[in-house]
Design brief:
With about 325 residues, the protein is mostly beta strands. It has one domain: Beta Barrel (Porin), CATH 2.40.160.60. A hairpin with a 4-residue loop joins strand 6 and strand 7. The chain starts with a helix and ends in a 13-residue tail after the last strand. About 35% of the residues are buried. It comes from Rufibacter tibetensis. This is Type IX secretion system membrane protein PorP/SprF. Pfam families: PorP_SprF (PF11751).
Length: about 325
């Protein structure tokens, strides 16, 4: 019952954050169809959620066939500090110690469930026509146990974002216009996030570019804050098959709330297929495979709604994952599935 109350309270808080954001102005960040495979690009609270070094490299080409269509490339990496370092009970006692017990270890001794830390970083390159944005960030998160089955993490990221205009990609009727628009700017970038998770579900809320409202001018609204709310549930149909629906809400006024709805079927924790719908914009098919305890790869193809598909051949997104320092030889994420 306590878990349900915590989950409900977190959802109310997230919805409150989303509704408050209607006072803000700006533009949405780069879109990711496979956000559920790397929520780290949206929420720094995930930093160090797995007990290995999680690297992700992705390339996304959106609305292929349209001149100046968005192109996004990112590299992210984060790892945990201090996972599984609970102290064993003296003499191998079979009674749990502390409020929460992780159960027996390989030596038949109980271990306390201790909090742990996470650190990470990201590099993101996003281009739309002549407009280019490059971001470099470092992140930190703190994970703690709320019960024997549920954890909560809170994190933040900080870095720099540089925006520039490639004047050589545009033809001007008046060359003096090049001076007016051919400028670049660099600002600090700061994001915060919270993440509630267990083996069956997760719920997360994040705010990025939270310094933007003070930094941006009337003419330059590109640094305005962005809010994200995401949730997923893992339904184990059998020992080999799991169904995972997930949802993502993105908002920044005056743009209406953007909704992504996804569902994946995962077999033997190795192979999965799925489908996605982005409200008013596109449908997508997704598929991925864990090649080993070190490598996985996934691909998605978005085909637009009628208005977009008439001028575009769709969007392609490729994500390659590498798990380093994977001492438990996990073939898939344990907390993000």
């Amino acid at each position: 019952m306590r878990q349900v109350q915590i989950l409900f309270g977190t959802l109310l808080l997230c919805c409150s954050l989303v509704s408050t954001s209607t006072l803000l102005y700006g533009q949405l960040r780069a879109q990711y169809t496979q956000y559920m495979l790397n929520n780290y690009v949206l929420n720094p609270g995930i930093t160090g959620i797995e007990d290995y070094l999680d690297l992700k490299l992705s390339s996304r080409s959106q609305w292929v066939g349209i001149d100046g269509a968005p192109k996004t490339i990112y590299l992210t990496g984060h790892t945990s500090l201090g996972v599984g370092n609970g102290s064993s009970s003296k003499g191998g006692s079979t009674q749990p110690q502390g409020d929460f017990s992780a159960g027996l270890d390989t030596y038949g001794k109980y271990r306390r469930l201790r909090p742990h830390h996470g650190v990470g970083g990201s590099i993101i390159y996003d281009r739309i026509g002549p407009f280019v944005q490059a971001k470099v960030n470092a992140s930190y998160a703190y994970h703690l146990w709320l019960s024997k089955s549920m954890k909560m993490s809170m994190g933040a990221s900080a870095g720099l974002v540089r925006q520039s205009f490639r004047a050589d990609d545009v033809t001007f009727h008046d060359n003096t216009d090049v001076v007016a628009v051919g400028r670049s700017s660099m600002r600090p970038d700061f994001s915060v996030g919270v993440w509630l998770y267990s083996k069956e579900f997760y719920v997360g809320a994040a705010a990025s570019q939270v310094l933007g409202q003070d930094m941006a001018t009337q003419e330059d609204a590109s640094f305005r804050p962005h809010l994200f709310l995401t949730a997923a549930y893992k339904l184990n149909v059998s020992d080999e098959l799991a169904l995972i629906p997930s949802v993502l809400l993105k908002h920044i006024a005056p743009v209406p709330i953007a909704l992504d709805v996804n569902a994946r079927a995962v077999y033997a924790n190795r192979v999965w297929i799925g489908a996605s719908y982005r409200q008013g914009e596109s449908f997508a098919g997704l598929a991925g495979v864990s090649l080993s305890h070190t490598f996985d790869v996934s691909y998605s193809y978005d085909f637009g709604t009628k208005a977009v598909s008439s001028v575009s051949s769709g969007s392609h997104e490729l994500v390659v994952g590498v798990r380093l320092l994977n001492r438990k030889m996990a073939i898939c994420p344990q907390n993000l599935w």
